[in-house]
Design brief:
single chain; 407 residues; mainly alpha; three-stranded antiparallel β-sheet; 8 strands; 11% strand; globular; disordered N terminus
Length: 407
């Protein structure tokens, strides 16, 4: 949609809302106005799920008209607005800076946020987007350039009166970057110590939640025992569980999207199989029985039957408060996955098998979980001692030297 100049202040915009109960979004909000150049009557309309949402949409259009912004500009997506205003947004930059900024816009900003209307982009959406770039292992300079061009485009939107505050001016992302670097370098350090520690955490989160909803305990335990992401746990259907061999085929994950949560392919874009250990089999069998014969029924939902996301789990269980009280102040929901992968590695699962369970694209990522624990380090020292002194029997054999043997 091409950019048009702002119309004179006080342009008259009429509005109405039509209720159409047979539609998925039954409230159609519509605005109409006369174009001051062509003298033709124009209109915009959008469907909304509730009357309040329809009125809010109309209110935004009217506010834009009051400051001289045409309705089509007020409802532009970020990709459309950026394409029309990039020269203004990047004015004053040196040529050597333009290329990385434009690459960040084209390769990262538009795919992540380009479909959102400019007026609907929030600090939270930008936060999640930046963390996604970091999790995808983009370099620090790449993230910085991508965020910088987004800041400039949104600043232009502020000057145009489309928004009042620039939501791209987020802070603390460098801290997030450092945490992600630590995670990539040593994910084992983020894992819970043992099974009792996991159960204490799961129960504490349940106790802190509204009505002590048991489902939160099940989600946390299942995620750690299967080394899965929270979105993948939310996506589990009854048909994904093989109760004969106790295998879970991971086919989908629940992720945030415009309009709410939605299901899509796993992060690796392919299904994988994960073993279901004996400790969680009774819980899984109980969940399958509870959801009934529908093979597409979700095994894990919120207290009202809704989809689960990492943010939903955090807010419902007061995660930050609970983990801090238990001495795990840096523990995040994704660290449940690190916990499971670390336990699998310490159990002696070969790297190529662990890679399949994790769904890693690179074996190097999997090998980060194979760092030796303290027992392995101690045994390595004993082995070296035995190698350097062949007369001395390795301590692990617990055999004393024969009496009278000279050393």
């Amino acid at each position: 949609m091409p950019y048009t100049e702002s119309v004179p202040l006080g342009v008259r915009v009429s509005s109405d809302i039509e209720h159409r109960p047979d539609r998925p979004s039954p409230y159609r909000a519509r605005v109409r106005w006369f174009d001051p150049v062509s003298k033709r009557r124009k209109s915009l309309s959008e469907g909304r799920e509730t009357l309040d949402q329809a009125e809010e949409w109309i209110s935004g259009i009217l506010q834009a008209a009051q400051v001289g912004i045409t309705p089509n500009v007020a409802t532009m997506s970020l990709a459309e607005y950026g394409a029309s205003n990039m020269d203004l947004a990047l004015r004053g930059l040196e040529l050597k800076t333009l290329d990385p900024y434009l690459a960040g816009w084209r390769c990262r900003v538009v795919p992540a946020l380009g479909h959102f209307p400019v007026r609907m982009i929030t600090n939270g959406a930008v936060d999640r987007t930046v963390h996604g770039w970091i999790a995808d292992q983009h370099s620090r300079s790449t993230v910085k350039n991508s965020l910088a061009v987004l800041v400039r485009v949104m600043e232009q939107a502020v000057r145009d009166g489309i928004i009042t505050v620039n939501p791209a001016r987020v802070t603390g992302w460098q801290r997030e970057y450092k945490q992600a670097e630590d995670e990539l370098d040593n994910p084992r350090a983020l894992a819970l110590r043992d099974w009792p520690t996991l159960l204490r955490l799961a129960q504490a989160l349940t106790d802190r939640s509204h009505d002590h909803y048991r489902g939160w305990r099940e989600v946390v335990v299942f995620a750690a025992a299967t080394a899965a992401r929270i979105g993948e746990v939310s996506g589990v259907r009854a048909c994904d569980i093989d109760t004969e061999n106790w295998i879970w085929t991971v086919r989908r994950q629940t992720t945030p999207a415009p309009g709410g949560l939605t299901d899509k392919n796993t992060k690796g874009k392919r299904a994988r199989q994960v073993p279901l250990i004996e400790e969680i089999r009774p819980m899984i069998a109980e969940r399958i029985l509870a959801v009934g014969p529908n093979p597409d029924a979700r095994l894990f939902t919120g207290p009202r039957g809704g989809r689960i996301s990492t943010a939903v789990l955090r807010d419902a269980t007061h995660w930050d408060e609970v983990v801090t009280s238990l001495g795990h102040e840096h523990l995040r929901r994704h660290d449940l996955r690190h916990t499971g992968l670390t336990w699998f590695a310490d159990a002696g699962v070969p790297a190529h098998v662990l890679r399949k369970i994790a769904g890693h694209g690179s074996l190097l990522t999997t090998q980060r979980y194979l760092h030796p624990d303290m027992t392995q380090i101690t045994n390595a020292g004993h082995a070296l001692t035995a190698h350097l002194n062949p007369i001395r029997t390795p301590l692990t054999l617990a055999v004393q030297p024969a009496a009278g043997r000279r050393r």
